[in-house]
Specification:
It is a single chain. Helix content is about 50%, strand content about 20%. By secondary structure, the protein is α+β, with helices and mostly antiparallel strands. Among the domains are: about 70 residues, no CATH class; about 130 residues, Band 7 domain (Tetrahydropterin Synthase, Chain A, 2-Layer Sandwich), CATH 3.30.479.30. The strands form three sheets. Strands 6, 7, 8, 9 and 10 form a five-stranded mixed beta sheet that branches. A three-stranded antiparallel beta sheet has the order 3-2-5, with helices on one face. Strand 8 and strand 9 form a beta hairpin. The chain is elongated. The protein starts with a helix and ends with a helix.
Length: about 300
């Protein structure tokens, strides 16, 4: 072969090698989006390699794929506010479907917990659990729950921990009021933290929401209202006593030629009249309309009156 042929062959080989290298490099570059973790999958099986947000080089000749998990905090709310379902995603506009999908990956909600306290009182408890996935245990989370089972295990384990804590014999409704509520919230947070920690999740926040005590709560509210109603009755009794003394003093001065007593009495009477007629409603009955003219009359005034009636 001539030198020109060798040169052409060399240029061709170099171009092919360069193209092959560029293809391998492009396919080996994996980018994990911000706010996500990438679990490297080799031949359909999870590996211990977790990719942080950013670009990563994974050799292209390996049969691999990357499964994404959120790296930021996620929240599960057990307060009965509802959840975004697949039906709402299908009816959403194309521009909003992606945003709703991202929100459902980070936040879910469910019904509040129905529990029985240690003193046999039934209650409905709302709570919010904020958590993150532990990077070193991402493979375990993937093999046990997968990307769509994280919120399910958070719901079950947190509910189990809260019920086990509240059903303790030394726990009663007094723990939900005053300074005991803070201690109760810390105790529940510690129980939920231990329960989810065993599943490869780190609890970053726990909030105890509203507590509905049912009929027991109605009794408590009635007792509180009764105390304030008694105070109001006492204040009104004192007012009535002072008014009776003023009326007695007024009776003694009615014979004296003074207008001050009559002015006081006039103000008192007007106040009583306003209190008695505050709920008074006056309805006026409509009277009969104008009498229509006899038939065959050409009086325009009568026709106008008939139309008006």
């Amino acid at each position: 072969m001539s030198i020109v042929a060798w040169i052409i062959l060399l240029v061709f080989l170099l171009s092919a090698l360069g193209l092959l290298g560029w293809v391998v490099l492009a396919n080996s570059l994996v980018r994990v989006p911000s706010g996500s973790l990438g679990l490297l999958m080799a031949k359909g099986r999870a590996t211990d390699q977790t990719l942080l947000p950013g670009p990563h080089f994974v050799f292209a000749f390996r049969r691999r794929m990357v499964e994404e998990y959120p790296s930021v905090e996620m929240a599960y709310r057990a307060d009965g506010t509802g959840d975004t379902t697949d039906a709402s995603l299908s009816t959403a506009r194309a521009g909003e479907a992606g945003r709703i999908d991202r929100l459902t990956r980070l936040e879910r909600s469910g019904p509040p917990l129905s529990v029985t306290l240690g003193d046999r009182t039934e209650a409905t408890v709302a709570m919010t659990v904020r958590f993150q996935l532990v990077v070193d245990r991402l493979r375990e989370v993937h093999e046990r729950f997968g990307p769509y089972g994280v919120f399910g295990v958070v719901r079950d384990q947190s509910a189990r921990a809260v019920r086990a804590t509240l059903c303790d014999t030394d726990f009663g409704i007094e723990q939900f009021f005053g300074a005991g509520r803070t201690a109760c919230e810390d105790r529940l947070a510690e129980a939920v933290r231990k329960a989810l920690g065993a599943e490869g999740m780190k609890v970053t926040g726990f909030v105890l929401g509203a507590v509905e005590l049912g009929k027991t709560g109605e009794v408590i509210q009635a007792t509180v209202r009764a105390r304030y109603e008694l105070e109001r009755e006492r204040a009104e009794a004192e007012t009535r006593a002072v008014r009776a003394l003023n009326d007695a003093s007024l009776e003694e001065r009615l014979g004296a030629p003074s207008d001050a007593a009559w002015r006081y009495r006039e103000t008192d009477l007007w106040r009583d009249l306003v209190e008695r007629t505050s709920a008074l409603q006056v309805a006026l009955r409509a009277g009969p309309g104008p009498t229509p003219p006899p038939r065959g009359s050409d009086d325009p005034a009568g026709a106008t009156g008939q139309d008006a009636s």
